[in-house]
Amino acid sequence: MTQDLIYSVCGIALFGIGLYGLIIVPHILQKILAVNIMGVGVFMLLVAAGHNPGGVSDPVPHAMVLTGIVVAVAGTALALSLVCRIGELQRDGADEEAAP
Amino acid sequence: MFHKLDGAKLPLGLRLICSAAIAALTAVLIAIVILSGPAAPGLQAEVAAQLARSGVDNPVTAVLLNFRSYDTLLEVAVLLVVAVATMPAPGRRLRPALAPTGDMVLIGLIDLVVPVVVVVGAYLLWVGAYAPGGAFQAGALLAGAGVLVSITGRFQFSFGALPARAILALGLLTFTVTAAAVALQTGVFFQYPTAAAGVLILFIEAAATISIAATLVLLYGSLVPPAREQESGP
Amino acid sequence: MDSGFLIDLVLAAGVLILAWLSLVATNLFKAIVLFISLGLLVTVVWVRLGAVDVAIAEAAIGAGLTGALLLAAWRRLWSQRRPVRDASGGDDSGGDNVS
Q1: Which of A73, B96, B111, B169 is deepest in the core (most CB within 10 A)?
Q2: Which residue of C has its CA nearest to B228?
């Protein structure tokens, strides 16, 4: 019970930290990190809720978290490639403005 | 013009308000979790009761590929969508790969590690039927091997080619076709015949593993910097 | 107050501290490395919670591939922007400042 409680609270706190980062931290890459941290918090809450000390854990949250981890990395990659594209367009635009 | 990537800081007052709101939200959520007491018993009893009919002995694999197959199917579809989104446009000249590295330690390590990783990936895929493991873990591991290989620059994965695109779609295709095929026999989408469920699940997992690994390698490949910035080295 | 309880407390605190540090770091490279270590620590948390399947996936994806993706993006966009005179070497792995 205590173990579940520790990790549930930790998951919610991670979610809060991620939300803070998403809103407050100015840099875009760290905003992507923040979304990932929020995701980790949600996963932790889910797994802690399915944890059954001394017995068989609930496999359904485990399966959902597995799916979530893979989707999260796919989303991160999509966000990163969008950021890279935007950054390169910006750089090209700046170059054109500097040397027309 | 786009926003700057490292955007401006919010004004101090707004930051304080946001911080306070987030702290309050977190505190309320924590209070709810603490006060709500122990979670309701999960579905482990139901899963255990039906495990014999699922074709595998690992409850997580059973949930992923039998009881909640739609989740997994849609996840493979999400991966395919992301792969399409980051794929180089057809006909565009392929970016030159990273300059081949002369790092003997890296090359030697990869010669040792990659075969082992491939074997371990296949093992994880196989063992997923009755112990922790399965398609996602195996696919991620194989993708790690692929990333290591592409770091050396000795090989390049070209996902503009048609066979490579077929590999990306293989998982979703196999998944859907199998689900439809078993529907012909049992009448329900994704309702595997109990006797053949184990083989079908392994079949789907193998296809999904290949697609997941290929997608993740493609995602990495679409993010590595173009070679020209590195060729200008000393 | 057995040792397992203590391990859980330390792990949870470590996860929170790493998450916080990775968000407030002013050096992007440092933020990414802290995030990768967060993934490794979370892997241990999954093992503590008995979710070995999730732990394997997290070790391969959360700690491995996500880090590779982040570092690739960082290298492509931010590592070579600052040092104009040093653009040939690309060795500025210390990263640049965010602000």
Answers
A1: A73
A2: C88
Residue C70 lies in a domain: yes
- The answer as to whether B19 is a domain residue is no
Residue B107 has pLDDT above 80, yes or no: yes
Chain C residue with minimum CA distance to B9: C99
Q: How many domains does chain B have?
A: 1
Among A54-68, B38-52, C79-93, the range of highest mean pLDDT: A54-68
Instruction: Show which of residues 130-169 on chain B sit within 8 Å of chain A, judged by CB atoms.
Output: 134, 136, 140
Residue B58 lies in a domain: yes
How near does any CA of chain C get to the CA of A99, in Å? Answer: 16
Whether C96 maps to a domain, the answer reads: no
Q: What is the pLDDT of residues C12-57, one digit of tens each?
A: 999 999 999 999 988 889 999 999 999 999 999 999 998 898 999 9
CB contact under 8 A, A21 and C23: yes
Which residues constitute the domain of residue A32?
Answer: 2-98
Q: Is residue B180 domain-resident?
A: yes
The residue range of the domain holding C69 is: 3-77
Tell me which of B2, B6, B123, B124 to substitute to probe the interface with C (most C C-beta atoms closer than 10 Å). B6
Neighbouring C-beta atoms of residue A26, cutoff 10 Å: 15
CA B216 to CA B213: how far, in whole Å? Answer: 5
Please report the residues numbered 5 through 24 in chain B whose beta carbons come closer than 8 angstroms to any beta carbon of chain C.
5-6
Check A78 against B26: CB less than 8 A apart: no
Q: Is B172 on the interface with A (CB under 8 A)?
A: no
Structural domain boundaries enclosing B126: 49-231
Q: How far is CA C61 from CA A87, B181, B222, C51, C75, in A?
A: 25, 32, 17, 15, 20
> Please, are residues A31 and A22 in contact by the beta-carbon 8 Å criterion?
yes
Question: What count of Cα atoms within 13 Å lies in the side-chain half-sphere of residue B124?
Answer: 24
**Residue position matching structure tokens 């695109």:** B165
pLDDT reported for residue B208: 92
The C-alpha torsion from A42 through A43 and A46 to A52, rounded to 10°, is -140
B56 — contact with chain A (CB < 8 Å)? no
Using a CB–CB cutoff of 8 Å, tell me whether B233 touches chain C: yes
pLDDT digits (tens, 9 = 90+) for B112-163: 999 999 999 999 999 888 888 888 899 999 998 988 888 877 777 777 778 8
Q: What is the CATH number of the domain that holds A51?
A: 1.10.287.3510
